[in-house]
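Lecture 7 notes. Example A: sequence first, then its C-alpha cells.
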Amino acid sequence: MTSEWLTHALRSCGAIEESRVVAFGWQVLGEGAGFIGQLGRITLEYDREEAGAPASVIGKFPSPIPQNRGFGVVAGLYETEIRFYHELAGEVGVRVPRCYFAECDPEPRSSALVARLLARLPGRVTMMLLDTLTAQAAKSPRRYALLMEDLEPARVGDQVAGCGMDEARLALAYLARLHATMWDHPALDGTPWLRRLDADSALIHGLTVRTWPTFVERYRDDIPSIVELGRWLDRNGEAVLRRMAGSPRTLLHGDYRLDNVFFHDGIAEGAEPVGDSADAAVTVIDWQAVRTGNPMIDVAYFLRPNVSPECAEASEEELVRRYHDVLVAHGVRDYSWEQCWDDHTVALVWLAMQGAFLLGALDLSHERGVELIDRAVGRAGPRIARIDLSALQL
C-alpha cells in the first residue's frame, strides 16, 4: 500500500478527482475479531483540499495467518466479497458501507483448473487433499483489496460482551429486511459465483466429523448431549445442510454477528424495527461469506451466540417472532410462523456443525478469536442440548 496506489484507488471510483494522497496512517481494527481478513483504518492526507474527499477509509486485506489466508483463498471468500460489492450491494435493500475500491488479481489459470477438478472429486478425496490445498493456497501471490467507507462514529457491536433486547431487535430487523428483499430473487440462481449453503456438503460434513473429538473435549460442559449430538450428525449432517439450503431461499450474510454490526446511536434507542428509521439504525460489514439458503441460518447464527444468555433464554421466541413480523411487513407471504420456528430449530443444530467446522478449518491462536468461539458455544450450547433430535424433519 502506497500513497500512489491509494490515489489511484480513490480516483477510480470518483471519490477524488484533482487531489492526490501524499501521506497515510494505518491502524489495525478488531484484532482477533476477524479470522479470514485483516481490517484497518487508513487516515489520509492530501496535497490540496477537495470537497467530498474522505478523511479516512477502512481497508480490508487477506489474513496474514497462513492457515486462515489459505482457507479464504480455497473457499473463495476474498473474491466473493469483491464480487458482492460490484454486483449485489445495490440490490440488497439494506444499508452497506460505500465501497471505494474492490479488486483482485485475475485468477491464475492453474487455480481455475484445480477448482474444476476439485468440483468433480468425491468429498472424501477432497478431505484428504484439504490441508495440502490450504497450505499451497496460502502461498498464492494473488492480491485482494477492499477500501470502504469509515463508519465512525457509529458504534460496532461486541460479540464477546453480547447485546440486549434493543440491539437484538434492530439487528434482526435489518436481517429480515435483507432476507425479504432477496427472497427468491433471480440473482440467487443467476449469479454463478454465489454458492448454495450445501455446496461441498460432503467436505463440510467430513471436516465437522474429523474435528468433533476436539469439539467434544473443549465444549463437553457447554453441550451436555454433545456425544449423542455428534453421533446424530455423523448420520444426518449432510441432510441438515441439504434441508437448510432448500426452499425457502434467500441471500444469507453468512457471518452475521455483533462484530460485523454497526449501530448508529441516536436512532437505535427505542427505534421501531420496521421502516426507514430501523434501516438507518444499522450498517453491516463483512460480506465475504454470502450464500443462498434458508433465512434461519443467519438468525440462529446471530441470536444465541450474540445475545446475552438471560435475554435469549427469556425472549428467544419473541425475537424470532419479531423477525418474522418484519419479513411479513416487507412482503413475504409464503412463510408461516410455524415453518419459521421449525426451521430455526434445525438451524440451531447446523450451528453446532458450524462451530466444529470453524474449529477445524481456522487458526484460532489469537486470544480474542478463541474467546469469540468459546462465548458463542457457551451461549448456544445449552439451547442446542434441549433439542429433540428424533423429532426433526429433514
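Example B, a different protein, same format:
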Amino acid sequence: MYSEGNGGNEEGLHELTQDSEHVRVRLKKLETLRAKGIDPFGARFERTHLSKEIIDDFSSLEGSTVKIAGRIMAMRTHGKATFADIMDLSGRIQLYAKVDSLGEDAYELFTSLDIGDIIGVIGKVFRTRRGEVSIEIDEFTLLCKSLRPLPEKWHGLVDVDLRYRHRHLDLIVNPDVRRVFLQRTAIIKAIREFLDSRGYIEVETSSLHPIPGGASARPFITHHNALDMDLYMRIALELHLKRLIVGGLEKVYEIGRVYRNEGISTKHNPEFTMLELYEAYADYTDMMNIAENLIHHVAVKVLGAPVVKCGGMEIDLTPPWPRLTMVDAVTKYTGVDFTKIETDEDALSAADSLGVEIAGKDSSRGAVLAEIYDKLVEPRLMTPTFIIDYPIEVSPLARRKKDDPRYTYRFELIICGREMANAFSELNDPIDQRKRFAAQVSLRDKGDEEAHMMDEDFLFALEHGMPPTGGMGIGIDRLVMLITNQESIRDVILFPTMRPRA
C-alpha cells in the first residue's frame, strides 16, 4: 500500500521558474498529488538500515522487513512489475514493486514517480534470479518531489563550472565526488586522533584581526560598524596560537579557515583550511618527525596503506623522508651553487642566467635564492622531501641558525611538486622579532602588499617570554588532494570561490 501524507498548500509554487518542459511536467504531477491529498514534501521517516548494510548483511537479513529511504536514480517497468534503484549515503540498492503487492492505485502512483524523487520504503529483503540483493516493496512514502530533472544519466555532470556551482548535483550523480568528500572528513578525523593522542589541545581563535599576520599574503578587508574600524580576515592562525604558548598552553593546534586575497589556481583558493600546531620546548626537527608520522598515519587510516597516487606515480609515504637544504636543492637541480654567491648583485646575475625574473620583487640574495627555488626546484620534487634552512629574508618569524645567521631553522615539506607543510623553530627573541617586523614594514612602504605589518600585540606577548617552540602549518586541502589523488583544489573544497554568473 501507499501511505499518504496530510497534503499541502500551493503558496510559493508560482515562484519556481518554469524554464523547461521537464519542470512543467513535474509541476503538473505536483498538482495531481496535492489534489489527491498526498503531501509531496513528506515528514520524518524512520529508517532501520542503509543500503550498504543490507547488501553486506544479506545472509542475516534475507526475508526480513526493513525500512530504507533514498533518492530514485533509475526505474525500469516490465508489465505489472517495476524495478527501481535508490541511493542513500552508503550507496545504491534495487527496489522491486509489483501491482499484486501494492494494489492498482499505489502501483500506478509508484510508476509515476520521477528520477530524483526521494522516497521511504518498507519491504522484504531478497535476491533476484540474477543474484542482485533487492527489496520487495510492501509500502512506500513520497518524502520529497524533485521538481527538476537530474543531469542526463549517460553523461552525468562533467562540466566543471556546473559541478562547482551546483555541488549538490555533483554529489548526486558522481559517486567518486561523494567518495572524495567522505574521505576528507575521515582525513580530518584522523588528524585530530593523531594530535589528541599526543597531548595536543585543540583550540579556536578569532577570524577577524586588527592586523593581518602570520604569513606573507594580501588580506581581505572588512568593516565593523559598531566599532567603526576596519578589520582583516585572518591569513594565518600563527600569532594567536603563539600567544597561547606564552600563556602556558604548551601543545596547541587549530584546524580553521583562513582567507587570502590572491589569485585562483589548481593549488589556490581564496579561502582554505589550515592545520597549525605549536609545541613548547620543541624545534623544527620535532616538527619534521610529526609531519611525516602524521601524514603516514592519515594515509594508512584512510586508504589502508601508506601509498598514494600522484600524476601517474605511486608515492610511498613511509618515514623517514629525506632532508635537503634549500642551497643544496638549488645546486642539485640548477647547478648554481649559492655557497659561492655572496652579494645581491651576484644573486641577481644567477637568476638572470636561469631565466628567473626578479624585477619588482625583493632583490636581496636570500630572496633571490628562494625565488629560484620556487620556480625551478619545488615543482620537480615528487617524493616527500623536507627543504630546510630558508633564508632569513623570507622567514620573518623563524629563529636564526647559529652557524649561519643568513638562514633560519625553517622547512617546507614538498610532495608531488606541492608545498604540504611549512614549519619553524619559532623566533622567541622579541628584540629580533621587532627588527624583522620593521624590515617587513619597509617592504610594505615600497609597495609589497604581502609583507607583514608591525604587530605590537604579538610583540607585547613575546616580551613576557615564550619558551623555545616548534610550530607547523599544513594545508588541509592540499593534503586531501594528495590522499584522494585530485589535481585541483576545487575538487576537494565543497563550494570553491566562483565568479557570479551573469
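Note on Example B: The radius of gyration is 29 Å. The chain has 16 helices and 18 strands.
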